[in-house]
Amino acid sequence: MSSQSSIPWYDDFVGVAYRYYDLRMNVVPLFTDRKEAASLWHNTIHPWVDPSIKIRFLETDEKYWFIMGSDSQKPDTNLSFFKELPKSENYERFKKGHDGEAYLRLGVYAKKSLDDVKKDAICDCSHEAQDHDEGDGDVCLFNKCDCKKFSSFQVNLLKKKKIITDIKFLEEKDVKDDPLVWNCINVNKFSK
Ligand SMILES: [Zn+2]
Ligand SMILES: [Zn+2]
Q: What does pTM read for this prediction?
């Protein structure tokens, strides 16, 4: 029915977050620009038919490919999404805990500097903002920590959501059996 091969691939997003929220796990492709995320939702994801949304995770050693696509009520603006990402704790938690269902929402990812946060905000080095010295290039003063500059990020979830019920974790040997993944790998893996 759908001609998957003619749908353009899109990878211009920064990553994917996995969050427990509203009783279900959420899969959250992350953008740095709120307007871009909102227009992508409006033009591409909103016209998706929920039961036809597919999310695939193709695992390769320490990394995985996030692959997502769907039939659309507006085929002209349809896109399929992919991103090669390092496996993370949150990814593993999602893999174990999703139970066959998830919400899809988009998120806006904002980097925070020491000036933007409260004293108890946590740095990527795991220590609080107040452990970083504003007078000395934001270095972490915690014993033995080699963090040179406070940095953390915040994810704001956009409200709109879709329910995904077609979620699969695949290995490389399974690629040929899944048209969406097969197309993604053929188009994107060897082109970079
Ligand atoms: Zn730090
Ligand atoms: Zn530190």
A: 0.83
